[in-house]
């Protein structure tokens, strides 16, 4: 009888111990899940905060660019227009030999005026909204050709679809950053841009044949970080490649948004 009670007592304590072990495991799992959920929510909140900060920076930059565009178009453009008018008036009261020289000056000022107007278009996001991504890129490439910076080419394939205007501006600023780096550092002769509209994505490929660089040496450069951050903001995949003597390529894939 005593042996039977001892066995029952052992079973009883064993059951209790198992209960506490199982309870502890369940509690630990629930605690870990709760902890992971809180960490995930914290990360998402931090990401939303970073996105909002970046969006605010973008809005501030866009407003600054718009203001510069207005200044170029309205103030400097107006001054150059007045200069052209003054040159035309002067051309009527001077001799033929001087008039020929004056015409050269008039052409130079006229070209400067046109360049100012083209530049103001590329800075003003309202203009980009009106003429679209493709035309905005073409305006920029035409400007490079006119200034004889390099030879350019733009190709478009597929059936064009609507891109959110805010996203369109951000995509264009990424492309502009690439163009700016090309002009400043690449020593390139050719710049090619391809837009491909598919059923799921807008694929943007840019390639220049400049001196290239070692990717490891510029991983933390502000220009590259800006492009990456902007691409992430519109949920576009971003692939940037270069090597010494191999030029630079950029591949963006912007997803269709229903």
Provide a quick synopsis of the model.
The protein has 258 residues and is α+β, with helices and mostly antiparallel strands.
Write a concise keyword list for the protein shown above:
5 helices, 258 residues, single chain, alpha+beta
Mind sketching the topology for me?
Layout: H1 2-91, H2 96-123, H3 125-146, E1 151-157, H4 165-186, E2 190-197, E3 201-208, H5 222-233, E4 237-242, E5 248-255
Parallel strand pairs: 1-2
Antiparallel strand pairs: 2-3, 3-5, 4-5
Shape: elongated
Structural class: alpha+beta
Strand order of the largest sheet: 1-2-3-5-4
Rounded radius of gyration (Å): 31 Å
Helix content: 55-70%
Any overview of this molecule?
By secondary structure, the protein is an alpha+beta fold. It is built from five helices and five strands; from the N terminus they run H-H-H-E-H-E-E-H-E-E. It has helices spanning 2-91, 96-123, 125-146, 165-186, 222-233, and strands spanning 151-157, 190-197, 201-208, 237-242, 248-255. Strands 1-2-3-5-4 form a five-stranded mixed β-sheet, with helices on one face. Helix 1 packs antiparallel against helix 2, helix 2 (96-123) crosses helix 3 (125-146) and helix 3 packs parallel to helix 4. The model has no long low-confidence stretch (mean pLDDT 80).
């Amino acid at each position: 009888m005593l042996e039977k009670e001892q066995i029952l007592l052992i079973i009883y304590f064993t059951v209790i111990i198992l209960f506490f072990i199982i309870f502890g495991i369940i509690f630990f799992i629930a605690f870990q899940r709760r902890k992971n959920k809180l960490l995930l929510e914290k990360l998402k909140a931090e990401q939303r905060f970073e996105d909002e900060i970046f969006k605010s920076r973008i809005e501030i930059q866009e407003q600054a660019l718009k203001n510069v565009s207005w200044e170029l178009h309205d103030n400097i453009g107006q001054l150059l227009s007045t200069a052209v008018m003054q040159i035309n008036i002067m051309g009527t009261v001077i001799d033929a030999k001087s008039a020929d020289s004056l015409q050269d000056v008039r052409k130079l000022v006229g070209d400067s005026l046109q360049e100012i107007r083209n530049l103001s278009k590329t800075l003003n996001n309202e203009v980009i909204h009106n003429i679209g991504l493709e035309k905005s890129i073409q305006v920029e490439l035409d400007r490079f050709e006119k200034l004889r910076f390099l030879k350019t080419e733009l190709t478009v394939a597929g059936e064009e679809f609507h891109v959110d205007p805010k996203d369109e501006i951000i995509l264009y600023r990424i492309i502009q950053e690439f163009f700016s780096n090309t002009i400043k550092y690449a020593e390139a002769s050719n710049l090619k841009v391809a837009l491909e509209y598919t059923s799921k994505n807008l694929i943007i490929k840019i390639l220049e044949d400049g001196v290239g660089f070692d990717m490891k040496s510029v991983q933390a450069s502000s220009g590259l970080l800006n492009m990456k951050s902007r691409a992430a903001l519109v949920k576009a995949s971003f692939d940037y490649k270069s090597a010494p003597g191999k030029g630079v390529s950029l591949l963006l894939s912007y997803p269709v948004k229903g």
